[in-house]
Amino acid sequence: MNIPNNTYYLRFPSVLRKALQNGEVAFDSDVEIEYMPFTVFRGITREKGESLEIRRSDFLSYAELNKKPRGMECNIGWYSCSCFKDSKELEAALKLPRYNKKIISGFIKSEYGPQKTNNDTGHVDWWLYENTEVEKDFKVM
Questions:
Q1: Separation of alpha carbons 123 and 120, rounded Å
Q2: CA distance 75 to 79
Q3: Going by C-beta distance under 8 Å and a sequence separation of 6 or more, which residues neighbour residue 138?
Q4: pLDDT per residue over 95-104, tens digit each?
Q5: pLDDT tens profile 28-70
Q6: Distance CA 97, CA 47 (A)
Q7: How far apart, in whole angstroms, are the C-alpha atoms of residue 91 and residue 87?
Q8: Residues ≥6 apart with Cβ < 8 Å to 132
């Protein structure tokens, strides 16, 4: 990933933008800014009777939710929207089925933000630009 200057960071939500600008985190060299769209799967939480309508808030990172992930240091991945390329990998990671967890699927696109895919696990870290309407490209499975 070749980022010419800090103006690129202005595209991200404030929590990530500040961490990048302060040097607390940095993107790995294998993060892709430009890539062809591909399908991913993401877990969301819904309580009984709650609408299944997909919202932008379904794509917030742990950092945006102010949650420290279990067993993980606060690294650049903490600021990403976590997805999987294979629904079975997501099911295993979230220990599905669970009554309050649903799976959504949709297209990940470079216009929404950079991504890094772990080819061994199928896990995708996706750093969404601020104010994207990514929810329009996803549906509940």
A1: 8
A2: 8
A3: 42, 54, 58, 104, 105, 106, 107
A4: 887 788 999 9
A5: 999 999 999 999 999 999 988 889 999 999 999 999 998 876 6
A6: 14
A7: 6
A8: 56, 111, 112, 113
